[in-house]
Write a structure and sequence with these properties.
Distance between the termini: 66 Å
Number of strands: 0
Helix content: 40-55%
Largest sheet: none
Low-confidence stretches: none
Order of helices and strands: HHH
Mean pLDDT: 81
Shape: elongated
Radius of gyration: 25 Å
């Protein structure tokens, strides 16, 4: 009878090492804010126009809206 190779245990060790390496440090307490939806009702024709313009300029409406709100009100402290 031959003994089983050590590959399963080596694989298990590799998986455990990868899991440990992927865990964030407990000292890292700064978590980015969770992104949430922001709804704005606008006429459909304007939305289509703005979406097309954003795509032609290589940006997104989300980026433009975020920039406009930050320019108008600034960002929260912290």
């Amino acid at each position: 009878m031959s003994s089983k190779p050590d590959k399963p245990s080596m694989l298990g060790a590799a998986v455990r090492a990868a899991k440990q390496a992927s865990k964030p440090d407990s000292s890292a307490t700064d978590k980015p804010d969770k992104e949430v939806n922001l709804c704005v009702r606008v006429p459909e024709s304007q939305r289509r126009w703005w979406a097309a313009q954003a795509k032609m300029n290589g940006t997104t409406m989300t980026d433009i809206i975020k920039a406009a709100l930050a320019a108008e009100f600034g960002n929260p402290p912290g």
